[in-house]
What we know:
DUF5997 family protein; two-stranded antiparallel ribbon; mainly alpha; 2 strands; DUF5997; single chain; about 65% helix
Amino acid sequence: MSPEKKPQNMKPLTAANKLGIYLPAAPEEFQSTPVSRADLDALRADPPQWLVELQNNGPFPKDVIARRLGISIAGLARSGVTDALTAEQIDSLLEEKPDWLVKERRTQDEVRAEAERVKAKDEARRAASNRPQKLRK
């Protein structure tokens, strides 16, 4: 008989990242207790009210803020945004469209376009190398 497997636990920060929430805004119990994979699955399947509130209204971690603003995390840092923002603050920025946000969104669009160009070029190169070669006489 094999020994019983111990449940894998993750740090609260890892669990918060997987849930898309800002750890300091979570309840103290969540912040100080390791989370098992089963616990994480249970939180995803039937989230408590505090989790629903944080996922909908924030404050949000940087990766979520950047995604909602349509910019990179580096762009967020370049712009001087260091604090967690709420949904209301993010919506306000999207409405006001400050110069830094317009610039960072343009930069992000250029990065995405370049990534697509490189991907298409690589796919074309792969397709060309997979074609059968004509034999030379």
